[in-house]
Amino acid sequence: MHITWYHVLVCLYVVQRSLASTDGQMAIPSKKPGFNSIFQTDIDKEVQREVNTLKSQVDFFSDTLENVLKENKDLKTDISNLKSNFDDATDQLQKLENTLAEARQNISQQNLNYADLLKQKKQLEQILASTNERLTNRTNQLTSNVTRVTAEIDNLANTTAYSINQVIEGNNVLKTSFKELSRNQTLINAQIGKRRGVSDEDRSAFLVRLSADRSFWGRGIVINFDKVEFNIDMSYSPLTGIFTAPESGLFTFSATFEASKADISAAIVKNNEQISSMYGADNDRNKIVATTSTYVHLNEGDEVWMEWTGSGSTMVKGGIYSQFTGHFVMSD
Questions:
Q1: 134-162 residue pLDDT tens
Q2: How many CA atoms lie within 13 A of 304 on its CB side?
Q3: Which of 284, 240, 278, 233 is nearest to 262 (CA)?
Q4: Is the C-alpha dihedral spanning 295, 297, 299, 305 positive or negative?
Q5: Can you give the residue ranges of the C1q domain (predicted)?
Q6: Which end of the chain is more exposed for a tag (fewer CB within 10 A), N or C?
Q7: Region 201-331: CATH code
Q8: Distance CA 160, CA 275 (A)
Q9: pLDDT tens digits for range 168-218
Q10: pLDDT tens for residues 238-291?
């Protein structure tokens, strides 16, 4: 027999009404008079069994229903949880889809950017190749120009060196000739003085100075004092800076130099031989002064001059601060 929920509910209703009317005892139909009592007893037992069976089934179905309702409640709870989890999963899936869409968009943009970079790279490579080609051509041109200019400079240097050597040789010849002329002029003046009977007071004496500040550098330079204060008998030549003895005898010479924050190094020279020297060391003072003086015997025609002996560059003050003087003392 197939029992539906409808049968279960009807049975529950009948049982509930019976229990309610008999204080929990199933009502048994009353015995009708006139029936066989034995048969009636069997019927009652059978009915009672059926009722008990039905009650057992009702209890079973009641428990089953309660379990079903409980399971249904649990199932609803599980379904609610599953729905919540499904909603969460749906949200997560949507977020993942959005993220995936953004990633796809980013990848697409990156692909576009990469394509642009490749295009720019190709353009840069073309520009670089063109630039390298221009630089190579320009370098070759510059190398050719440098080679040509170097050759021209070498030729010019050789020509200039030859010209300078020619000028130096000519200048040396002129200097030698001028010295000889100056020496001869001095000797002539001395001879004229002797014939005229020149007194000792009229004999050779000179005082010369630098007309302006002058820079000296390099060893062995003849110092030409170009400002003449006096030059008796013209024995000193302001053009060469050399004094030529007009006669034999004893002479005296002295010199003074002043410089600023530089070494002073010079000497009085007789016929290429130093006879007196001076030195003033730079000691961070604003004023450096050096002086020297000497007596020397000269033969007629001997030459005396001031020569710079320093190795560095020195700016010497002109005027009264730097001067050279000499005069005849006595004859042999």
A1: 888 888 888 888 888 878 787 676 666 65
A2: 30
A3: 284
A4: negative
A5: 199-332
A6: N
A7: 2.60.120.40
A8: 38
A9: 555 554 555 555 555 555 555 555 555 544 444 557 999 999 999 999 888
A10: 999 999 999 999 999 999 999 988 889 999 999 999 999 999 987 766 789 999
Q: Note the pLDDT of residue 167.
A: 47
Angstrom CA distances, 221 to 63, 234, 258, stand at 139, 22, 17
Report yes or no: 303 and 270 within 8 Å, Cβ to Cβ. yes
| CA dist., res. 115 & res. 138, Å (int) | 34
Instruction: For residue 228, give every residue at least 6 positions away whose Cβ sits within 8 Å of its Cβ, in sequence order, or none.
Output: 206, 207, 208, 236, 238
Which uninterrupted H or E stretch holds 251?
Answer: strand 249-259
- Spatial distance between the Cα atoms of 195 and 198, rounded to a whole number of angstroms: 8
DSSP string, 190-229: HHHHHHHT--GGGS-EEEEEESS-EEEESTTEEP---EEE
Coil vs helix vs strand at 236: strand
Cβ neighbors of 227 (< 8 A, separation 6 or more) are: 208, 209, 210, 211, 238, 318, 319
In angstroms, how far is the first alpha carbon of the chain from the final one? 180
Angstrom CA distances, 2 to 6, 7, 139, 221, 245, stand at 11, 9, 110, 147, 168
pTM here is 0.44
Task: List the domain boundaries for the chain.
Answer: 201-331
Handedness of CA 172, 174, 178, 180 (dihedral sign): positive
